[in-house]
Hints:
By secondary structure, the protein is of the alpha/beta class. The protein has nine helices and five strands; from the N terminus they run H-H-H-E-H-E-H-H-E-H-E-E-H-H. The longest helix is centred in the C-terminal third of the chain and has 22 residues, at 139-160. The chain starts with a helix and ends in a 10-residue tail after the last helix. The model is unreliable at 17-32 and 171-177 (pLDDT under 50).
Amino acid sequence: VLVIGAALSDYGPLQPLVSIGMVASSAEAGSADGFQVVSNEADLDRAIDLGRQQGRGIMVDFSADWCTECRLVERNIFAKDEVRQQLRGWLLIRADLTHYDLSSKSLMQRFAVVGPPTVVFLNPDGSEIKEARVVGDVGVDGFLDKIAKAWREREYQTDAGGQGPKGKACDTFGPMGQWVVTADEIGDAGKLQVRT
């Protein structure tokens, strides 16, 4: 069976049944498990645009057919009813990195993904909810915790209306957030000092 797989496939000798069409690969499986499969940035942009139009948060699962830990995450986390319930309302996208070509490298670079399995949660506008990022198999409880963080951030973004009011609109975000003062409170703006 391995000889057949090696002879028929350029990337999956350990998946001979995929090579001869008896079993679908994850890319060919489409959205059978609820995920929309993308393999390049144009497809991802279309999916993000759909999420934006629908006002839905987006979960992107970076996965590959050759990634054994990805299969464990699919079986031991994504297949669990409690996880599926918490993911209702999210647009589920699987970024297929199986072929590891320029397109998949571009997808990885866009989100600074080192390798699969990595899961990123995005707001409907396409911005990442960084505190919800998952790298590797964190178990069901760890993954549910990340989903909860993603939901809280989405609600916070929706309730407060964008980045500005929350003080996270710039790279120098600190726990104080933005500080609004009037001109009479600061005097000469050229003599302001920054305290750390």
